[in-house]
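Quick question, first post here. What does this chain look like in 3D?
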Amino acid sequence: MSRKNKPQLKADKGKIHVVEMASHTRPEVSEVYGEDWIEYGEDNDYYQYLIDRYNGSPTNNASINGIVEMIYGKGLAVIDGEDSELSKVVKELFPKEDVHRGTNDSYTLGGGAFQVIYSRGGSKIMPLVHMPVETLRAEKAIDGVIKGYYYSPDWSKATKTGKNKPKRFPAFGHGNKKQVEILFIKPYKAGYFYYSPVAYQGGVPYAELEEEIADYHLSNIKNGLSPSMLINFNNGVPSEEDRLIIEKNIREKFGGTSNSGKFILAFNDSKELAASIEPVILSDAAEQYQFLADESRNKIMVSHRIVSGMIVGIKEQTGLGNNAEELQTASTLMDNIVIRPYQNTILDAFDKILEYNGYDDVELYFKTLQPLEFTNLENAITEEEIEQQTGQKAGNEETGSVTEEDI
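> Answer (accepted):
Ran it through. Tokens below.
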């Protein structure tokens, strides 16, 4: 999404025009005539817009980091155990670093992607390789099926012909087994087909607001909070060239880090016509900015469905959620309504890879980061269910894990 909705001020013959900022818009998915791919965002850069909101908003950044780590946990595991032959197959087929990156994309950008590479002859799939999802755009669907994806390292420079023309890759299951295919993982969202909006979509405007508040205060500090001086020249208005020379000389004399304030330069025909400054004072400015900062923080956390900020490393302003019982309840709730649905979406896609390689009914799961005492085992009956919940083999005395008799 472009930054063209920034507010602007325009001066014209002594008049000031205020340009209103357009309201925040949701991601646009558009089909452009003459292009084989589907654009995402007003300028086909919505993924980059989300990355900017991740980098610019501290609350959004901390929330995403915390949730991604909870989704990935301690990595993939299989019910057969760490030392089994099947576990070794899983570790080789799904490299840790690539799975972690794909998990990050899946939550941060609404989808994750992997390169599917076949062995000679196409009899099995080789280890998956992470594909940055922001470099991909979906091909126009045929009969309701997306059969390919287009790759460009920088979509702002993509062209229909020439060296910057995007490269097509078939979608998983739609190639000839001699090409690299793309396994694109995204959760289902009603009303969306080619791309999925991020889970925290409602908080994106507040992430941008939090970023703008920080930029405003930083600019104020860097510029000395307000102009330091007004310099009046009351002996007539010189030519534009002379005015620029005078301004340059003053800036060189008073500039530098030790004189960081701004100055206002006014040229007047006489002292009686000298410029005057009437500051526009915002009443209760500190309270208003604090309200906006708090509101942004709260709305971002709501959009991520964070029950307690302490779960993702954000200190709460109040005592709520600071005791062990409340934190345990919040952690369990977060795990059930946010973390596991994303894990299941990824695991379902990985199951298709295992099935192609001849491994059916494999119980894959992500080893949880949850403390053992926070794990809810009330409905766990079998040893396999206990292992999935705790990440530890049931009845293993060395690891101190629980058994069915402990439930």
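The longest strand covers residues 8-12.
Residues 324-356 form the longest helix (33 residues).
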